[in-house]
Amino acid sequence: MIRFIDATKIYPNGAVGLKNVTVNIEKGEFVFIIGASGSGKSTFLKLIMHEETPDEGEVYVNGYSVHNMPKSEIPYLRRSLGIVFQDFRLLPNKTAYENVAFAMQIVEAQPREIRRQVPLALGLVGLGKKAKAYPNQLSGGEQQRVALARALVNNPAVLIADEPTGNLDPKTSLEIMELLDEINQRGTTVIVATHEKSIVDAMKKRVITLDRGELVSDVKKGLYTNEN
Amino acid sequence: MKIRTLRLLAREGAANVYKNKLMSFASLVTITTTLFVLGLVLMFIVNVITNLEARKQDLQVKFYLKVDASALEQEEVAMFIEKSKENGVVAEYEYESREQAYENAKKDLQDESLMEGLTAENFAEGYFVTLADQNDSDEFIAKLKQFSGVDPDWITYPKQELEKITGIVRVFNYVAVFVLAVLMMISVLLISNTIRLTVFARRKEIEIMKYVGASDWFIRFPFIIEGMIIGFLGALLSYFLTYEAYDWIKNGLTSLFSSLMMSDLQLMEFGRFSVRILLVNVLFGMSIGVLGSFMSVRKHLNV
Description:
The complex is a heterodimer of chains A (228) and B (303).
Chain A: E1 2-10, E2 16-25, E3 30-34, H1 41-48, E4 56-61, E5 64-65, H2 74-79, E6 81-84, H3 96-105, H4 111-124, H5 140-152, E7 158-162, H6 170-185, E8 189-194, H7 197-203, E9 206-211, E10 214-219
Helix pairs in contact in A: 3-4, 3-5, 4-5, 5-6
Chain B: H1 3-19, H2 21-58, E1 61-65, H3 71-86, E2 90-96, H4 98-109, E3 126-131, H5 137-145, E4 150-156, H6 159-201, H7 203-212, H8 216-259, H9 271-300
Antiparallel strand pairs in B: 1-3, 1-4, 2-3
Helix pairs in contact in B: 1-8, 2-6, 2-8, 2-9, 6-9, 8-9
């Protein structure tokens, strides 16, 4: 599903993003990418969503080869992923419903299909009643739920979340993680970059630890601190 | 892209004009103002050129027959002039008989004693001819000279004045093209800068769309529609502004000209140019809107 083969990314200012990382993530897995700030978590995700390309090595995502992908194919790669960010990244002048519908409109889904799927996705994240609210009328947790619904609505094979709970209180964070787990149970591969110990420890999922761009451990059912 | 999607994106673009009121307003004001200035300058240029051309049109070929021209010779010339009018070389002409020439001379001199001993028979018949195209003057005069009844020393044509006016018109045309080009460039810069600002304010939005997997055209199209609508509205607004301002200026100048005894200076009616000005405005406004959006969005699409 996702394969990093000796992938290295050095930024123009010399900062090491990733260094010789080789990782294989299979379909249906739930993986935490952990590490301190600057450890390479974000670079790892950016390579998956083609925000960056590797300087050396190869990255394969859902059958797409990221390192020599034509520009016109990037949208298709991204449509096969559901992406959730720490800062939610909702379109400010669209309602919750419209934000989720937008993801379906770009894949030119039938209007009938959109009318059916969007309420389902919003229902799944528990926001069925706030469909008409604009992002600024929603709490942080609610906005992240909308972002989740948007990421899910096209049934992506992989869901990527970059610090999805970074802006949320512990209780809401846990709710969001439970949602991600539920989504994973339905067969979607979930990759979460985080540095929140409590969450990682509570979930007991595969944990990939990065440090200064290098992969230092990769443990099934790991903990944040178990010096794998 | 499916027609359904295009319709959706067009609606989106139209809705965005309203949703981003402040930025739309800023773009609208810029487009309206620049098109308004452009329209007024255009009208000024048209008026100057038309007045100069009218001057040119007033130039006449004046010629007299020999005093002793025979009836046949007189007839020949009269027929030639009439025929020239029929085939469009001559726009109009005035004929002055011997008697009229005598009377006019009397009136001009205002002194009976100077006219003593002179009768109408001492005066020659004259023609004052306005040509349809002043460029035909040389050929026309050459033909006149072939008539034995025409006095070759009494053919006058203010050629120098024609050349002067033609020269001025030519220079003015160059200046007009230059001024218009500069003004258009300034307009393009001003308008595309405003659009760039509005797009910059929404760069996050574009970025989000890219992350969700929208293609470049999917993102670009609503912006283009938005630019088109604002350009169109700006064109209409500036058209009405130009119309009102021109009317006001025209009325003011017309009364000024008549009080300065310069009533031969004519200002064109706006109606004669209204369709052209409207077309120029709409075409220019809309293409600037579209181009500005297209170029400004492009910068933010590389995510």
